[in-house]
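Quick one, tokens below:
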């Protein structure tokens, strides 16, 4: 026992702080050009629209906005997001649980479904903070071998047969960390396995609307039979602004009640001011036009980073060119260990995230994740010049 007398629960003793957040705290220095976090460019936020939305809420809805409220979320917001989801699959406001960011959604689903030792199947690699959230709920994470199109169907079927998971966690659009998107045919193959085996899906989709080229692919939840077996979650973070901390879960049946009870225990409700402001923004502003503007800028930045980075990489390297989202994923191959490159990069004034923390098991140490959204093409070029100094192959 330590001097304070506090004894951490086994859960907390075993779950570590996110290495990415730890890296971000080191690279927060002004002079470092960061390709590390998936940080939207604040210069592209619709600050006037949000100022007007908050102003409206605090002028016309202040008593409501400052009061306790219902746990599933404010009706206006649930209706707005249901209408948006309706473009992809039939959804009503009753199917929506508002969350304080989709990160909270991951935690709530974990709390609702997982007992200690339960297995969650994840992609390889996968979103690190999901691993953290599910681990806190006591889960054992098992990764399923994946290729450029996402989890391999045969491997998924074998893993389900072996581990009987409580659910499968997938990020099918512009995945974090790899930027990859699961094509329609792979989605159909995956859905067929999930339906046949009765395995629920947590489909995490914060990036799907941030598409720069190519055609949108329908969510797995929209495939025949899948809606009832899927919790689909979206977020305002990547399309509007992460500071409002608004996300939402779409689900059907008894799990919605469990999510609500979990949400009551965690925080009673998401900040009503923020919910009403986002609802006002969605009702009165053109989110599609905003997304088109952001996608055009991010698409240029992706090209600037891919084209500038490729010539710097060793001959063994593989670099993708995602059709949207925020991240590039480089597999450098050979004996490169990107965790050893990072301190040299930071000394040179640029930061990225080594790939190893994104693996639930057997990390590929030659991988790295770079975000192309935070900086303009000029700054990206300068960052890559600095990165070249840290590379020594
Ligand atoms: C795949 C994925 N899910 C969830 C989140 C959490 O986002 P937020 O809580 O801001 O909605 C992120 C953030 O980077 C993410 O990449």
């Amino acid at each position: 026992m330590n001097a304070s007398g506090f004894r951490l629960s086994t859960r907390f003793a075993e779950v570590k702080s996110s290495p990415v957040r730890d890296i971000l705290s080191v690279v927060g220095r002004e002079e470092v050009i960061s390709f590390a976090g998936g940080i939207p460019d604040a210069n592209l936020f619709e600050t006037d629209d949000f100022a007007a939305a908050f102003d409206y809420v605090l002028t016309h809805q202040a008593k409501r906005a400052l009061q306790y409220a219902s746990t599933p979320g404010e009706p206006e917001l649930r209706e707005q997001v249901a209408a948006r989801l309706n473009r992809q699959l039939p959804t009503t406001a009753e199917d929506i649980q508002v969350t304080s960011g989709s990160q909270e959604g991951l935690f709530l689903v974990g709390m609702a479904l997982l007992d200690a030792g339960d297995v969650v199947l994840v992609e390889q690699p996968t979103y690190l903070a999901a691993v953290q959230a599910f681990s806190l709920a006591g889960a054992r994470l098992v990764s399923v071998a994946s290729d450029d199109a996402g989890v391999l169907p045969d491997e998924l079927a074998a893993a389900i047969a072996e581990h009987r998971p409580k659910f499968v966690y997938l990020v099918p659009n512009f995945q974090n960390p790899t930027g990859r998107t699961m094509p329609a045919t792979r989605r159909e193959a995956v859905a067929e396995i999930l339906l046949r085996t009765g395995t629920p899906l947590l489909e995490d989709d914060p990036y799907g609307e941030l598409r720069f080229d190519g055609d949108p692919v329908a969510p797995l939840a929209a495939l025949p039979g899948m809606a009832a077996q899927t919790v689909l979650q979206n977020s305002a973070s990547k399309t509007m602004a992460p500071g409002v901390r608004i996300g939402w879960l779409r689900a059907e049946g008894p799990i919605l009640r469990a999510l609500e009870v979990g949400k009551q225990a965690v925080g009673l409700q998401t900040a009503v001011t923020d919910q009403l402001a986002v609802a006002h923004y969605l009702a009165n502003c053109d989110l599609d036009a905003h997304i088109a503007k952001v996608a055009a800028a991010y698409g240029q930045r992706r090209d600037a980073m891919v084209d500038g980075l490729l010539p710097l990489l060793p001959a063994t390297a593989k670099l993708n060119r995602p059709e949207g989202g925020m991240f590039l994923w480089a597999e450098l191959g050979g004996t490169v260990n990107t965790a050893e490159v990072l301190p040299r990069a930071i000394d040179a004034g640029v930061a990225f995230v080594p790939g190893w923390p994104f693996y639930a098991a057997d990390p590929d140490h030659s991988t790295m994740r770079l975000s192309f959204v935070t900086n303009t093409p000029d700054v990206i070029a300068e960052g890559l010049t600095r990165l070249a100094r840290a590379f020594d192959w």
